[in-house]
């Protein structure tokens, strides 16, 4: 037993990353990977089963679990921002140095891309089978919505513009009442900005 402890401790010393910012960036990458992997995985399960293996509630619960797990993994090391908007806000409020913004954003983007790639790999056969060997963005056989939010086909440019440009009270009421119909549920920027890149790469 003593030799095992010694071996584990020696491995820990060898693998320990001494540069704090690099450790924090890796923690952000892993935390965001977990967030996107569990979140997009739950969406994939609901979409690809056409709602027979879950629904809107299970997606919300999975994202809640994913955020919690991401915070548990990255919280002690980097603060678990898991989101470029949070990192920007922390820098803007002088709670983090500005040097962390590009590094954290890059790490979060990489983590989100890897998480989306893992989901695509796990559900590869199901995605191809779902739309009869085609990759479709929207509609009843659309699979790109697994990885990111897209405007609905019925939403024109004028409504999309006014959808985004209203006073805060109206925007708040609107976001609470209708985000799912027009453009899917809004999530975090790391999820909404990067997995479309993954989706366009994979689609």
TrEMBL record:
GO MF annotations in UniProt: glycerol channel activity; urea transmembrane transporter activity; water channel activity
A GO CC term attached to the entry: basolateral plasma membrane
Catalytic activity: H2O(in) = H2O(out); H2O2(out) = H2O2(in); urea(in) = urea(out); glycerol(in) = glycerol(out)
Entry's localization field: Basolateral cell membrane
Stretches that traverse the bilayer: 21-44, 56-80, 101-124
Recorded topology in the membrane: Multi-pass membrane protein
Principal location: membrane
Classification via Pfam families: MIP
SUPFAM superfamilies: Aquaporin-like
Function: Aquaglyceroporins form homotetrameric transmembrane channels, with each monomer independently mediating glycerol and water transport across the plasma membrane along their osmotic gradient. Could also be permeable to urea. Also participates in cell permeability to H2O2 and H2O2-mediated signaling. In skin, transports glycerol to the epidermis and stratum corneum, where it maintains hydration, elasticity, and supports lipid biosynthesis for barrier repair. In kidney, contributes to the reabsorption of water, helping the body maintain proper fluid balance.
UniProt similarity note: Belongs to the MIP/aquaporin (TC 1.A.8) family.
Quaternary structure note: Homotetramer; each monomer provides an independent glycerol/water pore. Could also exist in other oligomeric states.
Name by which UniProt lists this protein: Aquaporin-3
Lineage of source species: Eukaryota, Metazoa, Chordata, Craniata, Vertebrata
Record gene name: AQP3
């Amino acid at each position: 037993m003593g030799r095992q402890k010694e071996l584990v401790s020696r491995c820990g010393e060898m693998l320990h990353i001494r540069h704090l910012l690099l450790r924090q960036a890796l923690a952000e990458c892993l935390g965001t990977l977990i967030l996107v992997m569990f979140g997009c995985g739950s969406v994939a399960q609901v979409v690809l089963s056409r709602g027979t293996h879950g629904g809107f509630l299970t997606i919300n619960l999975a994202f809640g679990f994913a955020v919690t797990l991401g915070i548990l993994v990255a919280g002690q090391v980097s603060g678990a921002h898991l989101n470029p908007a949070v990192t920007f806000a922390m820098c803007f409020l002088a709670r983090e140095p500005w040097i962390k913004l590009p590094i954290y954003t890059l790490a979060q983007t990489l983590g989100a891309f890897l998480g989306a790639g893992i989901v695509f790999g796990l559900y590869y056969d199901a995605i191809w089978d779902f739309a009869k060997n085609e990759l479709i963005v929207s509609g009843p056989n659309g699979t790109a919505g697994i990885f990111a939010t897209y405007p609905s086909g019925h939403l024109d440019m004028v409504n999309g513009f006014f959808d985004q440009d209203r006073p805060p009270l109206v925007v708040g009421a609107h976001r609470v009442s209708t985000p799912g119909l027009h453009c899917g549920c809004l999530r975090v920027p790391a999820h909404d900005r990067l997995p479309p890149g993954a989706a366009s790469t994979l689609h």
